[in-house]
Amino acid sequence: MNTSQEVLKHIRCRVGDVAPYVIIPGDPGRVKRIVEQMDDAKFIAENREYIVYTGSYRGVPITVCSSGIGGPAASIAFEELIKLGAKVFIRVGSAGGRQKTTPIGTPVVIQASYRGEGTSLAYLPIAFPAVADLDVTNALVQALKEADEDYQVGIGFTRDAYYAQDQQLNILLTETGVKAAEQEAAVLFIVGSVRGVKTGAIVSTDSNIWLDTQPTLAEKEVLFHIGEKKAIRAALDGALILYRQRAHEF
What we know:
Layout: E1 21-24, H1 28-35, E2 40-47, E3 50-57, E4 60-65, H2 71-83, E5 88-97, E6 107-116, E7 130-131, H3 134-146, E8 152-159, H4 167-175, E9 180-182, H5 185-195, E10 198-208, H6 217-244
Parallel strand pairs: 1-4, 1-5, 5-10, 6-8, 8-9
Antiparallel strand pairs: 2-3, 3-4, 5-9, 6-7, 6-10
Helix pairs in contact: 2-5, 3-6
């Protein structure tokens, strides 16, 4: 943990700005939608893709920080937040559904990720699994159950090149049960393993390449935002569950 009062280069925060619990979306616009569901939140900093607020939700001290798209930008946010005392991370993101049984707008708890990106290789060799913390995963599932939401739990696919589709790999991963494709979860899980912090991820599906009938972009956005709201609430309630379990006390 950093004990000086220096402002860190990218997220532009210093000691005291960051809570032990962090909700970390990729999209800077999602920060505002998360903060709106909190009890209070104070703007801390904005630089590049990183927007930071710190406040509380039902007594839980929570920081919300956007990470941008992809592993390199996300790893910078994770590392700097950890230096400032973050202990529990919950990614709230968007993802493409990878099962025909995953409608657009479905909250999906990612329990582990296929490492199809490059950033995590700077931390650990490819044979090391990218796995979420069990306590965080269980808290997200409990929150969704208590809210009586439809949701799915499974393995995700973290990748780099959004517009490059490897159809053979897509088929293989779908056949082996992968639920959703996104761009940051594996990096979060690997950084969490290396740095000794708890991590988890929940996404709302905003598309699905396997649907027989594809909705329009406008229809997809409506469905996604319904799911996103559920995912945000599950992340906040999951943090509350963990806080009551004193999960931040390592």
